[in-house]
Amino acid sequence: MKKPILIVAALLAISLFFNSAFAQTAPATPAPATPAATAPAAQGGGDVIASLTASDNYTALSIAIRAAGLTEALEAAGPFTIFAPTNEAIGKIPSAQLDALMKDPAKLATVLKFHVVSGKYTKADLIKALSAGKGKTTLKTLDGQDLTLSVANGKLQLADAQGNTALVSAFDLPASNGVIHGLNGVLVGK
Fold first, then answer.
1. Which of 60, 75, 135, 157, by CA, is between 20 and 30 Å from 114?
2. In a domain? residue 122
3. Does position 90 have pLDDT exceeding 90, yes or no?
4. At 190, is the pLDDT very low, low, confident or very high (cuts 50, 70, 90)?
5. Confidence (pTM)
6. How many domains does the chain divide into?
7. Which domain holds residue 67?
Protein backbone atom coordinates (compact mmCIF):
# COMPACT_ATOMS: atom_id res chain seq x y z
CA MET A 1 0.00 0.00 0.00
CA LYS A 2 2.87 2.42 0.79
CA LYS A 3 4.64 1.85 -2.55
CA PRO A 4 1.75 3.10 -4.80
CA ILE A 5 1.32 6.13 -2.55
CA LEU A 6 5.04 6.89 -2.74
CA ILE A 7 5.01 6.55 -6.55
CA VAL A 8 2.04 8.91 -6.86
CA ALA A 9 3.67 11.38 -4.47
CA ALA A 10 6.94 11.23 -6.43
CA LEU A 11 5.16 11.79 -9.75
CA LEU A 12 3.21 14.69 -8.25
CA ALA A 13 6.42 16.20 -6.87
CA ILE A 14 8.15 15.86 -10.25
CA SER A 15 5.18 17.47 -11.97
CA LEU A 16 5.11 20.36 -9.51
CA PHE A 17 8.89 20.71 -9.76
CA PHE A 18 8.78 21.02 -13.55
CA ASN A 19 5.96 23.52 -13.39
CA SER A 20 7.75 25.71 -10.85
CA ALA A 21 11.28 25.25 -12.20
CA PHE A 22 10.44 25.89 -15.83
CA ALA A 23 7.00 27.53 -15.61
CA GLN A 24 5.67 25.33 -18.44
CA THR A 25 4.62 21.71 -19.04
CA ALA A 26 4.23 18.29 -21.16
CA PRO A 27 5.78 14.40 -25.44
CA ALA A 28 8.16 11.54 -24.82
CA THR A 29 10.01 12.09 -28.04
CA PRO A 30 10.18 15.80 -28.68
CA ALA A 31 9.08 16.83 -32.14
CA PRO A 32 10.57 19.75 -34.01
CA ALA A 33 8.87 22.80 -32.63
CA THR A 34 7.45 26.00 -33.92
CA PRO A 35 9.27 29.25 -33.20
CA ALA A 36 9.89 29.84 -29.53
CA ALA A 37 7.32 32.04 -27.87
CA THR A 38 9.68 32.91 -25.01
CA ALA A 39 12.50 34.14 -27.21
CA PRO A 40 13.58 37.73 -26.81
CA ALA A 41 12.59 39.67 -29.91
CA ALA A 42 15.61 41.98 -29.84
CA GLN A 43 18.17 39.16 -30.01
CA GLY A 44 18.84 36.58 -32.66
CA GLY A 45 17.75 36.71 -36.26
CA GLY A 46 19.17 34.95 -39.29
CA ASP A 47 20.50 31.42 -39.05
CA VAL A 48 22.10 29.97 -35.92
CA ILE A 49 25.53 31.29 -36.94
CA ALA A 50 24.18 34.83 -37.39
CA SER A 51 22.33 34.62 -34.06
CA LEU A 52 25.46 33.42 -32.23
CA THR A 53 27.59 36.10 -33.86
CA ALA A 54 25.07 38.85 -33.03
CA SER A 55 25.06 37.93 -29.33
CA ASP A 56 27.81 39.23 -27.05
CA ASN A 57 27.57 35.98 -25.03
CA TYR A 58 28.74 33.64 -27.81
CA THR A 59 31.60 35.38 -29.65
CA ALA A 60 34.16 32.75 -28.56
CA LEU A 61 31.87 29.97 -29.81
CA SER A 62 31.39 31.78 -33.14
CA ILE A 63 35.17 31.95 -33.57
CA ALA A 64 35.51 28.25 -32.67
CA ILE A 65 32.79 27.25 -35.17
CA ARG A 66 34.64 29.08 -37.94
CA ALA A 67 37.99 27.55 -36.90
CA ALA A 68 36.40 24.07 -36.98
CA GLY A 69 34.98 24.63 -40.47
CA LEU A 70 31.37 24.13 -39.32
CA THR A 71 29.96 27.46 -40.51
CA GLU A 72 28.51 26.18 -43.78
CA ALA A 73 26.96 23.11 -42.14
CA LEU A 74 25.22 25.23 -39.47
CA GLU A 75 24.01 27.77 -42.02
CA ALA A 76 22.08 24.96 -43.75
CA ALA A 77 18.32 24.56 -43.47
CA GLY A 78 18.48 22.48 -40.27
CA PRO A 79 16.65 22.83 -38.03
CA PHE A 80 19.25 22.69 -35.27
CA THR A 81 19.26 23.06 -31.52
CA ILE A 82 22.55 24.39 -30.25
CA PHE A 83 23.51 24.05 -26.60
CA ALA A 84 26.00 26.90 -26.80
CA PRO A 85 28.80 27.35 -24.27
CA THR A 86 28.99 31.01 -23.32
CA ASN A 87 32.17 33.07 -23.53
CA GLU A 88 32.57 32.56 -19.79
CA ALA A 89 32.24 28.77 -20.17
CA ILE A 90 34.83 28.63 -22.92
CA GLY A 91 37.06 30.88 -20.81
CA LYS A 92 37.14 28.15 -18.13
CA ILE A 93 39.01 25.79 -20.47
CA PRO A 94 42.73 25.83 -19.62
CA SER A 95 44.65 27.96 -22.15
CA ALA A 96 46.90 25.13 -23.32
CA GLN A 97 43.91 22.84 -23.93
CA LEU A 98 41.98 25.57 -25.77
CA ASP A 99 45.01 26.43 -27.91
CA ALA A 100 45.46 22.75 -28.81
CA LEU A 101 41.78 22.46 -29.77
CA MET A 102 41.91 25.61 -31.92
CA LYS A 103 44.94 24.19 -33.77
CA ASP A 104 43.17 20.87 -34.46
CA PRO A 105 40.02 21.67 -36.50
CA ALA A 106 38.90 18.02 -36.66
CA LYS A 107 39.01 17.56 -32.88
CA LEU A 108 37.44 20.99 -32.33
CA ALA A 109 34.63 20.07 -34.74
CA THR A 110 33.97 16.87 -32.77
CA VAL A 111 33.68 18.81 -29.51
CA LEU A 112 31.42 21.43 -31.09
CA LYS A 113 29.15 18.90 -32.84
CA PHE A 114 28.46 17.36 -29.45
CA HIS A 115 26.63 20.60 -28.58
CA VAL A 116 24.36 20.42 -31.65
CA VAL A 117 21.19 18.36 -32.03
CA SER A 118 19.18 17.92 -35.23
CA GLY A 119 15.69 19.33 -34.77
CA LYS A 120 14.39 22.40 -33.03
CA TYR A 121 13.82 21.89 -29.29
CA THR A 122 12.58 24.95 -27.48
CA LYS A 123 12.44 25.21 -23.71
CA ALA A 124 8.83 23.98 -23.83
CA ASP A 125 9.83 20.94 -25.93
CA LEU A 126 12.60 20.06 -23.50
CA ILE A 127 10.23 20.32 -20.55
CA LYS A 128 7.78 17.99 -22.31
CA ALA A 129 10.52 15.45 -22.96
CA LEU A 130 11.74 15.62 -19.36
CA SER A 131 8.20 15.25 -18.03
CA ALA A 132 7.57 12.23 -20.23
CA GLY A 133 10.93 10.73 -19.24
CA LYS A 134 10.23 11.26 -15.53
CA GLY A 135 12.98 13.81 -15.17
CA LYS A 136 15.47 12.49 -17.72
CA THR A 137 15.72 12.30 -21.51
CA THR A 138 18.35 11.70 -24.17
CA LEU A 139 18.89 13.50 -27.46
CA LYS A 140 21.24 12.48 -30.29
CA THR A 141 23.97 14.92 -31.27
CA LEU A 142 25.05 15.54 -34.86
CA ASP A 143 27.66 12.79 -34.42
CA GLY A 144 25.06 10.33 -33.14
CA GLN A 145 26.24 10.48 -29.53
CA ASP A 146 23.89 10.60 -26.57
CA LEU A 147 23.39 13.89 -24.78
CA THR A 148 21.57 13.25 -21.49
CA LEU A 149 19.26 15.93 -20.13
CA SER A 150 18.02 15.98 -16.55
CA VAL A 151 17.09 18.45 -13.83
CA ALA A 152 19.61 19.33 -11.12
CA ASN A 153 18.79 21.84 -8.41
CA GLY A 154 15.95 23.29 -10.47
CA LYS A 155 18.08 23.80 -13.59
CA LEU A 156 18.34 21.88 -16.85
CA GLN A 157 21.56 19.86 -16.81
CA LEU A 158 23.28 18.23 -19.79
CA ALA A 159 25.75 15.38 -19.42
CA ASP A 160 28.15 13.63 -21.79
CA ALA A 161 29.20 9.97 -21.71
CA GLN A 162 32.13 10.72 -19.38
CA GLY A 163 29.83 12.28 -16.79
CA ASN A 164 30.86 15.88 -17.48
CA THR A 165 27.94 18.22 -16.92
CA ALA A 166 26.85 21.75 -17.81
CA LEU A 167 23.76 23.73 -16.89
CA VAL A 168 21.56 25.63 -19.32
CA SER A 169 21.91 29.30 -18.41
CA ALA A 170 19.67 30.81 -21.11
CA PHE A 171 16.84 29.48 -23.27
CA ASP A 172 15.37 30.07 -26.71
CA LEU A 173 17.63 32.46 -28.62
CA PRO A 174 15.80 32.32 -31.95
CA ALA A 175 17.27 31.59 -35.36
CA SER A 176 15.70 30.99 -38.75
CA ASN A 177 17.05 27.43 -38.81
CA GLY A 178 16.79 26.51 -35.14
CA VAL A 179 17.16 27.65 -31.56
CA ILE A 180 20.07 28.27 -29.19
CA HIS A 181 20.30 27.59 -25.46
CA GLY A 182 23.25 28.94 -23.47
CA LEU A 183 25.47 26.61 -21.39
CA ASN A 184 27.72 27.38 -18.43
CA GLY A 185 30.23 24.69 -19.46
CA VAL A 186 31.75 22.79 -22.37
CA LEU A 187 31.03 19.08 -22.90
CA VAL A 188 33.38 16.79 -24.80
CA GLY A 189 31.38 13.72 -25.80
CA LYS A 190 33.33 10.52 -26.51
1. 135
2. yes
3. yes
4. low
5. 0.75
6. 1
7. 2-183
Please indicate, yes or no, if residue 107 is contained in any of the structural domains: yes
Let me know: does 26 contact 131? Beta carbons within 8 Å. yes
Domain membership of residue 64 (yes or no) is yes
HEC string for 81-149: EEEEECHHHHHCCCHHHHHHHHHCHHHHHHHHHCCEEECCCCHHHHHHHHHHCCCEEEEEECCCCEEEE
- Specify the CATH number for the domain of residue 108: 2.30.180.10
Strands of the 146-152 sheet, one edge to the other: 116-118, 80-85, 178-183, 165-175, 155-159, 146-152, 136-140
Please say whether the beta carbons of 49 and 65 come within 8 A: yes
Segment 19-75, tens digit of pLDDT: 333 333 233 333 333 333 333 333 445 889 999 999 999 999 999 999 999 999 999
